[in-house]
Specification:
It is a single chain. The protein has six helices and no strands. By secondary structure, it is mainly α. α2 packs antiparallel against α4. The chain is elongated. About 15% of the residues are buried.
């Protein structure tokens, strides 16, 4: 009888496959975001020159993109910290720790607001779709996390 209760207490909760897929997608996205945050400030001037020299360059269509490219190291270091927070959250959720959901959610909400707060750009509601979907999908898996 005592042996049965020890087995039920020591059972390791199995991570659902869907949660694993979400975490892996977040790992990939965070990795790309970290690389982008580190490389963009180094090559931003060359990218701006390239974009503005293209024959099909339309200033009105790419103005916000150019503002983000010219944002500088301060902006990209803050973005790097927030992306790292998102990655940390995914690592915790991979280990079935509920705190990871909070890291992930807070990091992504602030990251969504960052261009508006730091650069004065309009909120891009279309840019809210993917983080919103992932936050919602992670929330469905909270019941598996401790």
């Amino acid at each position: 009888m005592e042996n049965e209760s020890n087995n039920s207490n020591n059972e390791v909760t199995k991570r659902p496959q869907f949660l694993s897929v979400l975490c892996i997608l977040t790992f990939i996205n965070s990795g790309l975001g970290i690389i982008t945050s580190l490389l963009t400030p180094m090559v931003s001037e060359q990218l701006v020159s390239f974009i503005t020299s293209m024959p099909s360059y339309e200033q009105n269509l790419t103005q916000e993109g150019l503002i983000i490219l010219k944002a500088g190291w301060g902006y990209y270091l803050i973005a790097l910290a927030l992306i790292s927070g998102s990655l940390t959250g995914a690592i915790y959720m991979w280990k079935l720790k509920r705190i990871g959901f909070h890291f992930y959610t807070i990091s992504n909400i602030i990251l969504f607001c960052l261009p508006s707060v730091m650069l004065g750009l309009n909120f891009d509601l279309i840019g809210l779709v993917m983080p919103g979907v992932f936050i919602g999908l992670y929330a469905l898996n909270l019941k598996y996390m401790q």
